Amino acid sequence: MKFVRRSLRKNQNVVTVLFGMTIDPKKVSTSVTPFANTDDYSVILQDEEILFTMNTMFLVKEIKKSAKNSHLWEVELTLIDDSDPQLAALAHRMKEHLSESTGWQRLGDWLLNIGQYQQAEELYINLLKNSSCDKNNAYVYQQLGLIKHNQQEYTEAVSYYKKSLKIYQKTLSEDDQKLGAICKNIAMTYEKLDDQSNALEFFEKAHDIYKKALPANHPDLSTSYRNIGQLYNNMGNYSKALEFYEKASTIQEKTLTSDHLDLAASYDNIASVYNNVGDFSDALEFYDKALRIKEKTLNRTQPSLASSYNNIGSMHCCMDDHKKALKFFKKARKILEKSMPPNDPDLASFYSNIGKLYDNMGKYSKAIKFYEKTLKIDEITLPLDHPSLATSYNSMGQVYNNKGDYSKALEYYTKAFTIREKALPPNHADLAFLKHDIGVVCENVGDYSMARQFYEWAFSIGQLSLPSDHPHLHVYQLSLDNVKRKM
User: Fold this and answer.
1) What b/e sequence results for 407-446 when a residue is b if at least 16 CB atoms lie within 10 Å of its CB, and e otherwise?
2) By C-alpha distance, which of 380, 379, 394 is closest to 424?
3) What is the pTM of this model?
4) How far apart are CA 190 and CA 197, in angstroms?
């Protein structure tokens, strides 16, 4: 550490990096000697130096800014060798890739990887002009699709991907993983275009290929289950989402260590579905599983840890345990406000949850304060038709309705509904929720016929999109019955 302190004292404009190495001799093959203790050979004994060979390999576990000095970054490394399964898989994929591409293609790939999209595109276009080989052209079309995806030109990306797919379908076997990879890329691009039906079609095509080509517990198959689960979750088909998320986690539980972060991500996904269907106790159980993994493996200042505290706090809020909710929100806030830029979307989500807590507690001024923080971030960082912006408007509508400011409530509810109606299928559960909220405002101002109409819409959509025991469905029925009695 004395060298670090000396470096920091010399020039405060320089960022210093401290590498911390974890070396477990048991995890290194006996056929290699990547390091040696030089105590018996060094002239300066107090330095206690370790000598590493030039080809020594380390896995980067974590990169973080030092809590003690903003000019110091700490990188945690773990020694590995060729027997490491992740490294072996990466090396195998790289060898496959290098053997299948030409020198010019590899140059294009390199330009793509460093973000030089225009130069990469020019090179690939020239390759197309000078090639009559279907195999090479299929690869180039695929890379052009990646470029357009990264440039957010999604329609062009789909076009290039489909050209690649058409050629590969003629030259490859129907269970070749390349076909699965292209179908997955097409699906993910359709997701960006909010074309969920086409996204689902191509995710399922990719999944069918992976099921034929891969062992039952292969990580790529787990990823495929997760992708389909995520899409169903976004579409509001929660039973299907849960089915695919659980299949993904089953594979991970068999193939990963119990404290692997990918397993924590799977538990978070399952919890999100339970949250969406109103099963807050099961959601809390899985959010807690994810938290236990993160607390074992992550530094206490990691935003991912804050995300878990935020999720658990939100569940306690939904279960009306305000004291516990506030406890977890405080933990999340301590991390997020130190580690996140002021306009980060994760910070917006966190402020929204605190706003909801204060709204539930009847502290409307405090709720509005935090909802406004969320809205400020969303309006800066999101497009005007983004679903998260609709959620923020809806939250503002709810707190103003609870406060008794019905004109303000209706203003925000209308903004939320306008966005959601354009973005979601007509029977989505979120539309039922918004229609019910607008009905509440209409009822509060005495317009019972309009309130009844919105409640009927909400109940009708809810019956199509929610489980029969979902608490929202019960609320919609009660609201409809109550307003009928008032008419």
Assistant:
1) ebbbebbebbbebbeeebeeebbbbbbbbbbbbbbbbeee
2) 394
3) 0.65
4) 9
Q: For residues 326 and 360, what is the distance between their CA atoms, to the nearest angstrom? A: 12
CA gap 189, 205 in Å, rounded: 14
Same structural domain, 37 and 63: yes
Question: Which residue reads 């370790």 in tokens?
Answer: 50
Enter the tokens of residue 91: 């090396």
Distances (CA, A) of 114 to 16, 99, 124, 414: 24, 21, 15, 44
Beta pairing partners, 60? 77
pLDDT digits (tens, 9 = 90+) for 174-184: 989 989 999 99
For the purposes of burial, counting CB atoms within 10 Å of the CB of 6, is it exposed (0-12), middle (13-18) or buried (19 or more)?
A: exposed
d(CA 387, CA 370): 19
User: Could you give phi then psi for residue 340, rounded to 5 degrees?
Assistant: -110, 145
Provide φ and ψ at 50, rounded to 5°. -115, 130
pLDDT of residue 180: 94
72-80: strand order across its sheet: 16-22, 72-80, 57-65
pLDDT of residue 63: 78
Phi-psi region of 427 (alpha: psi -120 to 50; beta: other; left: phi over 0): alpha
pLDDT at residue 99 greater than cutoff 60 = no
* 117 & 163 share domain: yes
Per-residue pLDDT tens digits for 189-201: 999 998 999 999 9
Residues 70 and 133 both lie in one domain: no
Buried b (16+ CB within 10 A) or exposed e, 205-241: bbbbbbeebbeeebbbbbbbbbbbbbbbbbbbbbebb
Q: Is residue 176 part of a domain?
A: yes
Residues 6+ apart with CB under 8 A from 398: 359, 409, 437
pLDDT tens readout for residues 150-188: 999 999 999 999 999 999 999 899 989 989 999 999 999
Q: Which residue segment(s) compose the domain that 74 sits in?
A: 2-88
Which pLDDT tens digit goes with each residue over 213-266? 999 999 899 999 999 999 999 888 999 999 999 999 999 999 888 889 999 999
Report yes or no on 48 lying in a domain: yes
Structural contact between residues 24 and 79, judged by C-beta atoms closer than 8 angstroms: yes
pLDDT interval class at 273 (50, 70, 90): very high
**Are 417 and 437 in contact, with CB atoms under 8 Å apart?**
no
Between 312 and 467, the higher pLDDT residue = 312
Number of folded domains that form the chain? 2
- For 2, 4, 21, the CA distances from 59, given in Å and listed in that order, are 25, 22, 10
